[in-house]
Write a structure and sequence with these properties.
99 residues; alpha+beta; Alpha-Beta Plaits; four-stranded antiparallel β-sheet; 4 strands; globular
Amino acid sequence: MAVITHIVVEGVTPEQYDAVRAECDWLQQPAPGGLAHLSWWEGNDNHNVDAWESEEAFGAFSQDRLAPAMAKVGVDVEPKVTFFPAHEVFLPSATTITV
């Protein structure tokens, strides 16, 4: 079942986020089961909303790619992840916008 995740990584800078993104290589190598990803900051905290095919797909990405990338670039904050059952995931086009 598809899920929506809200992930909060407290005290992570945009530069640290970008380093993790580059190490994970998720823009060039999308994660199996990953459907959508949006990211923003509130104060010093990084927020992300993702759509995944399942909690297991997110778990595999987190274990195999995200956690090792975070460790490699020195981000030692444990992400706070909340799952919600998806009612709908609609993706009209594939677009990547980074700053």
